[in-house]
Amino acid sequence: MSDSQTPVPGTTLDLRTLTHVAYGLYALGFLTSGFLGIATLAAVVLMYVKRSDAAGTVYASHFDWLLRTFWWALLWLAISAIATLIFIGWIGLAATVVWVLYRLIKGWLALLEGAAPTTYA
């Protein structure tokens, strides 16, 4: 078995650094309230491109964690935007923001400890 901390041969960045970059880009897009939303999109593209390199490592679970966070947040933001027409969408918007922040923090802390985000207590 190979160590999940070692760089994948042929890549310039090891997967741990790449995962930190993905979390950082996602957080940058989130914290700027969409002003730098391109950073979040860059994180999503980066994760899809490097997903096969991360397969079988703890970093694959982080990629899945962030990708699921992105797609579910996008869905709930769209539903909340539509629901603002009947003045209840703000509740969904606030809940989505809190949920994304929670998942970013939980996932990044798990990465710092070298664990998968779903098994991190």
Helix/strand layout:
Blueprint lengths: L14 H17 L5 H18 L3 H26 L5 H25 L8
Helix pairs in contact: 1-2, 1-3, 1-4, 2-3, 3-4
Organism: Achromobacter agilis
Keywords: Membrane, Transmembrane, Transmembrane helix
Protein name: Transmembrane protein
Can you describe this structure?
The protein is mainly α and 121 residues long. 71% of the residues lie in helices and 0% in strands. The longest helix is centred in the middle third of the chain and has 26 residues, at 58-83. It has helices at residues 15-31, 37-54, 58-83, 89-113. The model has no long low-confidence stretch (mean pLDDT 86). α1 (15-31) runs parallel beside α3 (58-83). The protein has one domain (15-113).
Number of helices: 4
Rg result:
16 Å
Strand fraction equals under 5%
- Could you give the count of β-strands? 0
Structural class: mainly alpha
Mean pLDDT: 86
- What series of H and E elements makes up the topology? HHHH
| Helix amount | over 70%
Number of domains: 1
The low-pLDDT segments are: none
Tell me about the largest β-sheet: none
Distance between the termini: 26 Å
